[in-house]
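Long-time lurker, first post. I've been practising inverse folding by hand and with some scripts of my own, and I keep getting stuck on stretches where the C-alpha cells seem ambiguous. Below is the full C-alpha cell string for one chain I'm working on. Before anyone asks, I'm not after the true native sequence, just a reasonable design that respects the backbone. If someone could post their per-position residues I'd love to compare against what I wrote down in my notebook.
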C-alpha cells in the first residue's frame, strides 16, 4: 500500500531538498511547503512570474535563488503537469497577518483561492531558517498535525480545483469540496421550534400558532364582499350579516366580536376593537368611535339590545342618540304662575 505523498514528514523532506537558501519568514515556509506539495503530486516547475512560458525541460525541482526576492509580500511560481496542457500559476501574497494563495490555469481562467492565518500554522520566533540551522524545520510549524491540516486545505482548495481528477500513486482526492480555510463545526439548525407569525401590536395576545389572534382584524372588514349574503357559519338571513361574514353589516357581524363595555378599564373604546393603553396620549382630545352599546357577549349589543343611551338616562331606543335637536325642557321657575281657587260651601 502506497504511503500518502502529502504526509507532513515527506513534505518537510522535500522542502529541505529543494531549498536554495534560507527561509526568512513564515510566509517563505508556507510557500516552500506548497512548492513541495505541487512536486509531490506530479507538477513540474516551469519558472517564476505570471506569464505562460515554460522554462527548462521540467526536471528542475529546486527553486531559483531569487524565488523569495519579493517576499514576504508576493510569491509567484509557474507549473506544468503531464496530465494537462495548461500552464498553472500559483501566486501567494501577504495581507496583514493573513497569507492568501491564488491558483490559475492559464487559458482556463478558473481561479482557486485559499486564505489562512499564518500564526495558526507557523511559529514566528523560529525564523530565519537555513539548512545549517541546529533546529529541525518541523519546529518552524506549530506541530506536524497543524502542518497536515494546512496541506489538506491546500489540496482541497488549490490542487483539486486546478487539476480535478488528478491520478497519482499515494494521492486521493478529498470527498469534501469545502472552501473553508480553518476547521469549523457546522451548526445544526434547530427544528424543535417553529417560527411564530408576526403579531401587530394593537391586537390581543395570541393564543396558539394556528389561531394567533383572538379577535377579528379590523383591516379584514370587507374581505367577504364577494359573498354579500355571508357564509353558512351563523348567517341570519339576506340582510343579517351573521357570523359567516358578508357585506351586509348586522348586529351579529364578526366585526363586532370581542367588544368591551364603555366602562371596561382594559382599554379605550375605539370601535370594533378597543384601543390599547397608550394609544391616546394623556390630555389629548379623543372622540370615541361608534357605534356604542353593550358587549354582545354580556347580554347586550348595539341597535337596542340593552345598550346605553348617550343622555343621562335610558332613551326610548337604547343605544341610539337622544333627540338633541329638540329644545330643552322649560324649568319650573320659568313656568307661568297659576292660581287655584276653591269655593266654600
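-- Answer (accepted) --
I ran through it position by position. Result:
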Amino acid at each position: 500500500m502506497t504511503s500518502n505523498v502529502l504526509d507532513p514528514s515527506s513534505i518537510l523532506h522535500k522542502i529541505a531538498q529543494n531549498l536554495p537558501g534560507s527561509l526568512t519568514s513564515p510566509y517563505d515556509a508556507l510557500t516552500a511547503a506548497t512548492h513541495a506539495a505541487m512536486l509531490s503530486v506530479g507538477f513540474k516547475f516551469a519558472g517564476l512570474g505570471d506569464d505562460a512560458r515554460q522554462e527548462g525541460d521540467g526536471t528542475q525541482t529546486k527553486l531559483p535563488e531569487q524565488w523569495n526576492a519579493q517576499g514576504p509580500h508576493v510569491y509567484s511560481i509557474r507549473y506544468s503537469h503531464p496530465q494537462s496542457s495548461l500552464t498553472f500559476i500559483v501566486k501567494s501574497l501577504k495581507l496583514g497577518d493573513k497569507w492568501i494563495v491564488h491558483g490559475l490555469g492559464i487559458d482556463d481562467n478558473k481561479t482557486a483561492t485559499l486564505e489562512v492565518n499564518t500564526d495558526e500554522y507557523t511559529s514566528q520566533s523560529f525564523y530565519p531558517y537555513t539548512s545549517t540551522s541546529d533546529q529541525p524545520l518541523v519546529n518552524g510549524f506549530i506541530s506536524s498535525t497543524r502542518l497536515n491540516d494546512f496541506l489538506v486545505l491546500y489540496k482541497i482548495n488549490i490542487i483539486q480545483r486546478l487539476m480535478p481528477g488528478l491520478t497519482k500513486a499515494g494521492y486521493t482526492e478529498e470527498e469534501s469540496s469545502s472552501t473553508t480555510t480553518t476547521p469549523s463545526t457546522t451548526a445544526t439548525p434547530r427544528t424543535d421550534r417553529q417560527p411564530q407569525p408576526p403579531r401587530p401590536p394593537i391586537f390581543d395576545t395570541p393564543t396558539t400558532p394556528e389561531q394567533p389572534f383572538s379577535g377579528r382584524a379590523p383591516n379584514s372588514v370587507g374581505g367577504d364582499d364577494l359573498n354579500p349574503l355571508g357564509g353558512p357559519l351563523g348567517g341570519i338571513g339576506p340582510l343579517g350579516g351573521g357570523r359567516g361574514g358578508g357585506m351586509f353589516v348586522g348586529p351579529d357581524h364578526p366585526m363586532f366580536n370581542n367588544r368591551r363595555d364603555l366602562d371596561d378599564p382594559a382599554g379605550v373604546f375605539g370601535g370594533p376593537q378597543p384601543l390599547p393603553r397608550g394609544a391616546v396620549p394623556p390630555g389629548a382630545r379623543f372622540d370615541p368611535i361608534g357605534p356604542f352599546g353593550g358587549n354582545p357577549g354580556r347580554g347586550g349589543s348595539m341597535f337596542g339590545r340593552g345598550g346605553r343611551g348617550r343622555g343621562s338616562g335610558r332613551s326610548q331606543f337604547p343605544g341610539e342618540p337622544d333627540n338633541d335637536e329638540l329644545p330643552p325642557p322649560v324649568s319650573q321657575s320659568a313656568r307661568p304662575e297659576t292660581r287655584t281657587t276653591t269655593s266654600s260651601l
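A couple of notes from the structure itself: The first helix runs from residue 8 to 17. The chain has a mean pLDDT of 73. Happy to go over any region you disagree with.
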